[in-house]
Amino acid sequence: MANRFRSLMFGALALGFGLLLGSAQAQETLVVASTTSTEQSGLFGWILPKFEQATGIKVRVVAVGTGQALDIGRRGDADVLLVHDRAAEDKFAAEGYGSYRKDVMYNDFVVVGPKDDPAKVRTAANAGAALKAIAGTGQAFVSRGDKSGTHAAELRLWKDAGIEPKTLAAYKETGSGMGPTLNMAAATNAYTLSDRATWYAFKNRRDLDIVLAGDPILFNPYGVIPVNPMRHPHVKKEAAERFAQWLTSAAGQEAIAAFRADGQQVFFPSAKK
C-alpha cells in the first residue's frame, strides 16, 4: 500500500513538473532589441500582435538606441535586432555577430525647430546648410547623444558641414531616446533631428514644426539581423528566423505599410522580393 502511495505521489509530481515545464516552454519569448523609433512611434504595437497571431511566438521588445541594441546583440542578450544605422549594421554582421542583414523598411529624418525658425532653416538648400545656419546664428540644438541611429546620422551631418557640434555653446545632449529629446527641444524652443515616425507620434510639440525635410542624405533604412547562434548558441535561432522572415514577407510588409502615426504613413516597406 505504502509503495503504491509513493508511486502515485511520484507520478503526480512528475506530471505536475511536466505541465509546468510545458507551460514555461509555451510561454518562451523572443527578445527583439530595437531602436526607440519602432516602439515610440507605435509601430510595434501595430505589427507584433499580427506576428504573434500568425506564429504563436511571443515577443519582448528592448527599445534602446541602435548602438545599444547592437551591443545587446554582441553580448547575446537578444535573439534578433531591428535597427537603423546601416554602416554599424554591416559591421555587426561582418564581425560575425549577426547571421545576416535584410532590408525591412525605410523612412527619413527631419529637422524640427521653432515655428518662427530664427535660423531660417526653411530656406536652406540642404541639411548641411541647415546645420550651418543653426550654428551660425547661435540657436539651440538638442542632440540625443546616445549612440543611436539618429545620433549617428546627426553626427555625420555635422561632420559633412565641417562643424564640431560640441564646440557650440547652445548644443545640448540628452543621452536619451527620441521622445525625451523632442520634449527638451519643445521646452527650450530648440532645433533637433528626429526620425519622421516618432515626430508624427509625438504629442507635446508646443511651438515646434518640421523646418527641413526631403534631402536625400536624410534617408533612413531599417534592417533586421538575427543574432548569430555560432557566437551565442543559446539564442532562439528558429524564432528569430521566423521573425525576420515574417517582417520581410508579404504579410509583414503589408502590416508595415498599413501603420499610421497621426494619420500619416511613416514607414515604407523595402524588403527585396
Structure, explained:
With 273 residues, this protein is an alpha/beta fold. It folds into 2 domains: 2-106 and 221-269, Periplasmic binding protein-like II (D-Maltodextrin-Binding Protein, domain 2), CATH 3.40.190.10; 108-218, D-Maltodextrin-Binding Protein, domain 2. The chain is 44% helix and 20% strand. It has helices at residues 2-26, 36-40, 43-55, 66-75, 86-94, 127-136, 149-160, 178-188, 196-201, 237-247, 250-258, and strands at 29-34, 58-63, 80-83, 102-114, 141-143, 171-173, 191-195, 208-212, 219-226, 268-269. Strands 1, 2, 3, 4, 5, 6, 7, 8, 9 and 10 form a 10-stranded mixed sheet that branches. Helix 7 links the parallel strand 5 and strand 6 (171-173). The chain is globular. The N and C termini lie far apart (68 Å).
Topology:
Elements: H1 2-26, E1 29-34, H2 36-40, H3 43-55, E2 58-63, H4 66-75, E3 80-83, H5 86-94, E4 102-114, H6 127-136, E5 141-143, H7 149-160, E6 171-173, H8 178-188, E7 191-195, H9 196-201, E8 208-212, E9 219-226, H10 237-247, H11 250-258, E10 268-269
Parallel strand pairs: 1-2, 1-3, 5-6, 5-7
Antiparallel strand pairs: 3-9, 4-7, 4-8, 4-9, 4-10
Concise overview:
The chain is of the alpha/beta class and 273 residues long. The chain contains eleven helices and ten strands.
